[in-house]
Amino acid sequence: MKRDNEKTLLNLPNTLTFTRLISIPVVLICLSFPGRWGSFLAALFFVLASITDILDGFFARKYGIVTVLGKLLDPLVDKLLVSLTMIMLIPLNRIPVWMVIVIITREIALTGLRGIAVGEGIVIQASALGKYKTILQSVAVGGLCLHYVYLGINFHVVGMVFLWGALILTLWSGWDYFRCFYQLFVPGQK
What we know:
Largest sheet: 2 strands, antiparallel
Strand content: under 5%
Distance between the termini: 44 Å
Number of strands: 2
Helix content: over 70%
Number of domains: 1
CATH class: Mainly Alpha
Radius of gyration: 18 Å
Strand order of the largest sheet: 1-2
Mean pLDDT: 86
CATH topology: Four Helix Bundle (Hemerythrin (Met), subunit A)
CATH superfamily: CDP-alcohol phosphotransferase transmembrane (TM) domain
Shape: globular
């Protein structure tokens, strides 16, 4: 029995998720070093961690190794990576605090909705809007970590442009999730 549990815990998608979890303090430590070098390393580790998010989902679906641990841990680690990195960018004056509050509030609210739905035996899947929001958000945060001009590209400006797009999709997809939740749980609204 122990052997089966080890296989479940140590599969490739879960290992990628654990790698992403371990990368969070690395990104945060890099951001604590001022200047281009710390910013470059933070962006590099953030982007690599974001790529593991894509890969873990791909391998889980391709090989049919979706686990309860993976379903729980993957979205939690994603939210921690993005949220903590954005919070770390606030004192560096790279991201407006109100945008971080809106984005994190939406994430917490949707996590609560999903928890309520699961308690009722209903799974609220990630929508296409939510997936696009995640992509824009990852590009934005990566650009804001990089921050400086490289190869003639001002990555702070690029990051802010993508962040505005992510913010619009954050609000839109959040509204869509709440609408779906309302239709599922309020009698006569289906």
